[in-house]
Amino acid sequence: MDDTDWYCPEDKTDRLAMLYLAAEGQAVALGDMARASTHWPRILGGGGGLLSTAGDYNTFMSMLLAGGELRGQRFVSPRTLALMTTNHLSNNRDLASVATDSYAEPDYAGIGYGLGFSVVVDSAANQSLVSKGTFGWGGAASTIFWVDPLEGLSVGFYTQLLPTGTYPLRRELQQLIYSSLT
Predict the structure, then answer these.
(1) pLDDT score at 169
(2) How far apart are the first and last CA of the chain?
(3) How far is CA 3 from CA 55, 60, 62, 120, in A?
(4) How many CB atoms sit inside 10 A of residue 23's CB?
(5) By CB neighbour count within 10 A (0-12 exposed, 13-18 middle, 19+ buried), where does 130 fall?
(6) pLDDT digits (tens, 9 = 90+) for 49-80
């Protein structure tokens, strides 16, 4: 993963995607925010802040889908990945039952939380076709990725639109993909 870092180096700024803000039905470019990502951050946030490419992210998702291994090299033990993708909310509750408010678009019914990933614990409660055990995460700019081990499927969707949830892209994408599987 040669293109993933905490900032965008100067020699790669021509490849940096513009970030947009949804304002009054328009997408407004946030040039200042894009320029801010060309400098080393003051804080390295464990929950976000990395910049990457679709290619690097696909490599990451492929490793997760393969149970922590890629091209013959192990990066995460199967037991550790299983722990990370297990719901850790008390009494196997879902995010809808423990969250007080959310700015994100997805309905959190049937979605648990592991160690760094959302985890589908009840597809019926989530009113989706996504398999139980699917794990992933969404980003601030309306991005999403998920890995469905049951279907052997990984999906990455990379928009650049703030705030997340401006349009119900994530749910619609899931519906389109899962309704096309045979």
Answers:
(1) 83
(2) 32
(3) 8, 12, 16, 29
(4) 10
(5) buried
(6) 788 999 999 999 999 999 999 999 999 999 99
CB within 8 Å of 106: residues ≥ 6 apart:
138, 170, 171
Q: Which residues contact 91 (CB under 8 A, 6 or more apart)?
A: none
Distance CA(105)–CA(118), nearest Å, equals 14
pTM score, whole prediction: 0.90
Question: What structural domains and CATH numbers belong to the chain?
Answer: 10-180 (3.40.710.10)
CA distance 149 to 164: 26
- Mean pLDDT rounded to a whole number for the chain: 90
pLDDT of residue 140: 81
Say if residue 131's pLDDT is above 90: yes
Question: Are residues 157 and 144 in contact, defined by beta-carbon separation less than 8 angstroms?
Answer: yes
Q: Which amino acid is at 134?
A: T
CB atoms within 10 A of CB 79: 9
Which pLDDT belongs to residue 175?
93
CA distances from 108 to 85, 96, 105, 124, 169 (A): 16, 5, 9, 12, 15
Q: What is the largest CA-CA distance in the chain?
A: 50
Record the tokens describing residue 64, joined without a space: 């997760």
